[in-house]
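Protocol step 4 of 6: structure prediction from sequence.
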Amino acid sequence: MELKNYFSRFLPKNRTQKLSEKDNLFRKNISELVGYNIHNLEIYKEAFSLKTSSKNTNKKNYERLEFLGDSVLGTIISCHLFHTYPNENEGFLTQMKSKIVNRKNLNKLGDDLKLCSLLQADISHTVLSENISGNLLEALIGAIYLDIDYEFCKKIVLDRILTPSTINKLENKIISYKGLLLEWSQKKKIPIKYETCEELQANKVTVFRCYVWLHNEKISNAVEASKKKAEEKAAQRAFYVLSKKENIIENQKTVS
């Protein structure tokens, strides 16, 4: 509660004047999204305001609430996992949390909730960050926390955003094929190497091609716009190649 009180000091007080048609619609949409009649409209407007390039550095945007929401969400998920999996070790809990709060998953949740449609500005000519949906989701959670309290925010998150059934589906989800390949190579004591280089395409766009080497054999390659994405995609293809080979070997052992 001390953190909530600290941040609340910087929030604008609720205004009593009549709301504009735009604000009334925004309040209605947010209330339907979170499942209750919101109290502090201004904090939600801040959660869905983009950072501007103007000289007015005091103009509020979603970033502070994103920072707060990230911590609140992390606490909610950590506590939920701790009680849901009483017999699992720290490593399992850490992996599960990573699957839930990783940027890709949060972006998907934000997209599913259509959070970008709630932005308080015309974005038709704005290039948005690829992580904007996940950032807005965290800002929304920060706003809910400040608008009510932690326990209510926890209920909203687990009842409407990250339900237990959604979390359970992530238990067997693979979030990093590079990580899987590393585990496989360590277990088999077989070295795996990545070789990534830049390529200039015909349209003069630079891309990254990554090769995965097993001993002296290239077992997969992939092209992506970034080095990180190229390595992950190449690792995914390599993982499927190795899985297929191991299945064939297992089948041959069974037949013989």
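Step 5 (inspection) to follow. Strands lie at 192-200, 206-214, 217-224.
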